[in-house]
């Protein structure tokens, strides 16, 4: 057969599959109605596993592929049933009750010190709020819980101050929500109380920043000294002649330093992401990003059928991360960010369906992210 | 209709879909043969996108679902074609030429200092090798490249010494491979030159370890002081009376300290994963873990169709992480670990197919991981 003939044959097969697929979805809706009347659960694991085993056997050399295809078909069918039944009451209620108005926090808890990159993120997100500084993540959550601060700002990527896992653990522990986010370019400047570059003999900074600017420092032939933070380096340089700090322009301004050189990092493109967390769910009208956490059992293809459902709803992942669940072999928590809004009924339906089907499911927030 | 009648109807539909699916796969094989004869590429993006758009339109309210279903069918069809054609020659050759024998490295580069958790990982992986210590990731790669060390050991999770991204960037930059891995529980002990707990007044450690043991220290009523590492704390405590360090037992042994208390961290379950990297691809016979890196274009469902293919081959993901590609909006690199071995022809076929289809595809290694 020629390629054209083969393609024509494939097109006919595809038409047949589509027809059967749509019939199957129509049946799923009827199944939903029967299940509603009889109060039966949507997910029938025994039946699904039996169908998968049967199909895998019947498909011979394509058993693995057929299994995935049917896992997918059944997930879509469940989806249609959940949608027909309005599943996920708890999440639906929480989203309905969430505040729609961006709050104007009076005070915001922040990691590190005056002039830190976290402080810069806070100033961009909440320019009118008073920053309150804390040395670690748990103190920030405690401050928001006991009302010392209205919100907290924390780095969640490229951070040397703690791990992202710790942030997620704390969000789940405190049952807080993500209310906004910002992504900042990490750009170091050389800042000093001196006004001329050639006067600088020693450059202070955090070891990571020193590494990021190693090429620049070598070329300049200056010696370097480590500090515990870039903001700390700025503070130190403000008090000592013939020294400079590698820090953000924000930090230089905080300590009244002159900026002798800009963008001195060896390579561009490093960004750090910060989130703001609060006690209450807040979903501003322009919210365009959703964060979730859930576990999937260690069965081949389980993650994939969940992702298929995001894809089927036209939702794009912007982040995915897996993490082994401590104490349970081969079970994983997944952290996902995707673009979308719960104001879209289809998106809300999907999340509500998943909230019923997945263990350890948490809706972490629907917010907007500044660049 | 009753549930039983509906299910019978669904079963019949499923039989029909399976029949058509198997016909489609048979056509795909014939397409592969025609393409081989004519030297045509397997992936025909224009045709695939047109089919997806058509099917999406025809499926009405289930357009999104139908699109995913067909993206999946076409990916499986490509898979069958790649397999029939033996695609991915470059990767196939590299795997064939890889050494099968675990090497006995004489010296291994290691992050940090004597007694660090990295040092412990190295000692467990290569008990007979001489450790050589370096302060950062780039120095370790340089040492392996210039032959000062045969291999390098680096932490790739929960690490405060640098980011996982940095490790992956360096592996790709140097074109190194992952040759082994180990996962260590992070367990701190209280170690001192003193022999009695009540003599301790000050406890040294890295800020992260101090936080991890904050509850314990509070209960004991001792003051704490920060050091740059847990091993550094052990060294310090060895030289000063009435002090102790929070460090690993390995570090305590390195500095001849008495272990006054064990497992003093507030919660268990923290593990750090370490990998060993080398210049050459080494695939030991018992290798059971594969690491990959690749980019997918920002089109809905692209990641998902790749994961579907892993699932169809029965391969279980053990780790997935996304990372925005610097300078390119909405394009992502993915880092994946999954259980498997390239000695399995089906697994190798899948990787070879992906190596042809995905941009920025890198096979990082096939190794075994100690617990």
Automatic annotation (TrEMBL), chains A, B:
One Gene Ontology biological process: chorismate metabolic process
PROSITE patterns: ACT, CHORISMATE_MUT_2, PREPHENATE_DEHYDR_1, PREPHENATE_DEHYDR_2, PREPHENATE_DEHYDR_3
EC number: 4.2.1.51
Ranges for domain Prephenate dehydratase: 107-279
Domain of life: Bacteria
Domain ACT: 291-368
Catalytic activity: prephenate + H(+) = 3-phenylpyruvate + CO2 + H2O; chorismate = prephenate
Record-linked SUPFAM superfamilies: ACT-like (SSF55021), Chorismate mutase II (SSF48600), Periplasmic binding protein-like II (SSF53850)
InterPro entries per record: ACT-like_dom_sf, ACT_dom, Chor_mutase/pphenate_deHydtase, Chorismate_II_sf, CM_dom_sf, CM_II_prokaryot, Preph_deHydtase, Preph_deHydtase_CS
Pathway(s) this gene product operates in, as recorded in its UniProt entry: Amino-acid biosynthesis; L-phenylalanine biosynthesis; phenylpyruvate from prephenate: step 1/1; Metabolic intermediate biosynthesis; prephenate biosynthesis; prephenate from chorismate: step 1/1
Gene3D superfamilies hit by this protein: 3.30.70.260, Chorismate mutase, Periplasmic binding protein-like II
Primary localization: cytoplasm
Pfam families hit by this protein: CM_2, PDT
Essential for prephenate dehydratase activity, annotated site positions: 272
GO cellular component, one term: cytoplasm
Purpose of the protein: Catalyzes the Claisen rearrangement of chorismate to prephenate and the decarboxylation/dehydration of prephenate to phenylpyruvate.
The name this protein goes by in its record: Bifunctional chorismate mutase/prephenate dehydratase
Lineage: Bacteria, Bacillati, Bacillota, Clostridia, Eubacteriales
């Amino acid at each position: 057969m020629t390629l054209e003939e083969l393609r024509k044959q494939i097109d006919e097969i595809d038409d047949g599959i589509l027809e059967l697929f749509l019939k199957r979805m129509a049946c799923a809706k009827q199944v939903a109605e029967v299940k509603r009347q009889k109060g039966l659960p949507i997910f029938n694991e025994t039946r699904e596993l039996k169908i998968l085993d049967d199909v895998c056997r019947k498909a011979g050399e394509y058993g693995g592929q057929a299994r995935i295809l049917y896992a997918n078909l059944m997930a879509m069918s469940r989806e249609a049933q959940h949608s027909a039944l309005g599943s996920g009451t708890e999440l639906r209620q929480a989203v309905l009750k969430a505040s729609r108005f961006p709050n104007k926090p009076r005070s915001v808890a922040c990691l590190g010190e005056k002039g830190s990159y976290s402080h810069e993120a806070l100033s961009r997100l909440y320019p009118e709020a008073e920053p309150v500084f804390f040395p670690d993540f748990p103190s920030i959550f405690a401050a928001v819980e006991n009302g010392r601060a209205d919100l907290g700002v924390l780095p969640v990527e490229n951070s040397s101050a703690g791990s992202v896992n710790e942030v997620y653990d704390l969000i789940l522990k405190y049952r807080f929500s993500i209310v906004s986010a910002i992504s900042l370019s990490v750009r170091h400047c050389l800042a000093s109380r001196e006004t001329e570059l050639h006067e600088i003999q020693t450059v202070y900074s955090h070891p990571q920043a020193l590494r990021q600017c190693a090429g620049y420092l070598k070329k300049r032939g200056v010696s370097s000294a480590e500090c515990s933070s870039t903001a700390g380096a700025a503070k130190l340089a403000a008090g000592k002649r013939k020294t400079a700090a590698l820090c953000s322009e924000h930090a230089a301004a905080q300590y009244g330093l002159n900026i002798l050189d800009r963008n001195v990092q060896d390579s561009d493109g490093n960004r750090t992401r910060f989130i703001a967390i609060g006690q209450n769910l807040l979903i501003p009208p322009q919210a365009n990003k959703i964060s979730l956490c859930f576990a999937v059992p260690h069965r081949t293809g389980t993650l994939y059928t969940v992702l298929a459902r995001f894809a089927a709803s036209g939702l794009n992942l912007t982040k995915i991360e897996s993490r082994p669940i401590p104490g349970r072999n081969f079970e994983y928590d997944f952290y996902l960010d995707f673009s979308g809004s719960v104001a879209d009924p289809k998106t809300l339906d999907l999340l509500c369906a998943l909230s019923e089907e997945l263990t350890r499911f948490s809706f972490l927030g629907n917010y907007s992210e500044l660049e």
